[in-house]
Design goal:
The chain has 71 residues and is mainly alpha-helical. 55% of the residues lie in helices and 8% in strands.
């Protein structure tokens, strides 16, 4: 499973989800859906926008963890 570290990065930078929504021109609903892992897919456009707005790399943005079903 892939986890987006958006909330962690926002906290480290002292920024809010509202700020990020404005930067990316994305709704709160879609942002939360992506962050919570409820989105079926995320486009490269959004991944690039996350990295640009948060000034981070893909490696910092995402963490891969073992899914409990796989173990």
């Amino acid at each position: 499973m892939i986890i987006l570290n958006v909330e962690k990065i926002l906290k480290e930078q002292g920024k809010s989800k509202e700020w990020l929504c404005n930067e990316m021109d994305i709704s709160h609903y879609n942002l939360n859906k992506a962050i919570k892992g409820n989105a079926k897919s995320i486009s490269y456009k959004y991944l690039q926008s996350f990295c640009k707005a948060l000034n981070c790399s893909f490696n910092e943005l995402m963490t891969i963890v073992e899914d409990e079903k796989e173990t």
